[in-house]
Amino acid sequence: MGKGILETYKKFLPITSETPIFTLGEGNTPLVESRNIAKEVGCKSLFFKLEGCNPTGSFKDRGMVVAVAKAVEKGITSIACASTGNTSASAAAYGAHLGLRTTLIVPKGNVARGKLTQAVAYGAHIALIDGNFDRALEITRELCERHPVELVNSLNPNRIEGQKTASFEIIGELGKAPDHLFIPVGNAGNITAYWKGFVEAHQEGLSDTLPVMNGYQASGASPIVDGHVVEEPRTVASAIRIGNPASWESALKAQNESNGVIDKVDDDEILMAYRRLAAEEGVFCEPASAASLAGLLKRVNAGESFKNKDVVCVITGNGLKDPDIANGIEPVSLDEYEANVDSVEDALSLP
Ligand SMILES: *Cc1c(COP(=O)(O)O)cnc(C)c1O
């Protein structure tokens, strides 16, 4: 508990006696049971895995801690990544913790304000580029080939290793894998990692069953669903605004081996699920994170039954990352009242 990913999951990670062990408190995130939306789904249970509770506010910390540990083990003092935001925030935090130089290549105009604020606070060196994420990644890869800098994007296999630990945690709480896992898909590293985790846990005898994997892309950024690269991906959900996923093949493998689906939800469906999670469950996530629940609700609305099923939706990041989206939907405009009980009482319909 609270010991972090490296210490807790040593046995399942590529860790040697030379690997430094440290933590910012990543992992061990809550699995919260739905009290309201579950009724409409009609399932046995519905849980939300709150990955926004990680130290920098997204699941990226699980993989970053492993990637950074392995880089430090090799004697590397400089890391870099391309990012639409959360990978940047996470790399910058662990970079700061280990005293590394962190370089971030960030697509201009595409990054939520909270995420950039984090990266700046952690002291990262940031280059905004006039191009999308896919271009930013190409540039970063080239830079890492030219310089002694470790690439910590999800192409780095240690990221996937760290991220798979979320599956172990879910099994630890439920006593087995859920029947269905719903998860947002962008670069497709996370769906790859969860499937790897479930398969390994199954092989270790920690769960008798494997889940059906249900991945959801945004409809303006759905290369895997459509079967071709999307040159100009568009969606309100910036964390999954990706046109050429790095882990495309392994995402399809997760889908096929689990008899699952990778499908898409549009921005209206994403924002509806985003609002409902906050207003009906008390879970404030970023828009991309709501793609998991949006996918589940789409299937329920199409008439699919989840009767007797245990369902987990992965809620990948914290809502405070992207305040401009929330504010754009429901602008915060508050009326002001005279500072006395009577005037405030008149304004509010208290029970
Ligand atoms: C990175 C990220 C995703 C997408 O995960 P992939 O591994 O790229 O598929 C979804 N939601 C949030 C909040 C993220 O940070």
Inertia-based shape: globular
Instruction: Give the topology string: H per helix, E per strand.
Output: HEHEHEHEHEHEHHEHEHHEHHEHH
The average pLDDT score comes to 94
* Uncertain stretches: none
Radius of gyration: 20 Å
Distance between the termini: 41 Å
State the major sheet. Answer: 6 strands, mixed
Q: Give every kind of bound small molecule, once each.
A: pyridoxal-5'-phosphate
Please provide the count of β strands.
10
Strand order of the largest sheet: 1-2-10-7-8-9
Estimate the helix proportion, in percent. 40-55%
Strand content: 5-15%
- Backbone structural class: alpha/beta
Count of separate DSSP helical elements: 15
How would you characterize the overall build of this protein?
The protein has helices spanning 5-8, 37-41, 60-73, 86-98, 113-121, 133-146, 157-163, 165-174, 189-203, 223-226, 248-257, 267-281, 291-301, 323-329, 341-347; strands at 31-33, 45-50, 78-82, 101-107, 125-129, 150-151, 180-184, 212-218, 261-265, 310-315. The protein has 351 residues and is an alpha/beta fold. Strand 7 (180-184), helix 9 and strand 8 form a beta-alpha-beta unit. The structure holds pyridoxal-5'-phosphate. Pyridoxal-5'-phosphate is lined by residues 58, 60, 86, 154, 184-190, 239-240, 286, 288-289, 316-317.
Task: Give descriptors for this structure.
351 residues, alpha/beta, 4-stranded parallel beta sheet, 10 strands, 41% helix, 15% strand, globular, binds pyridoxal-5'-phosphate
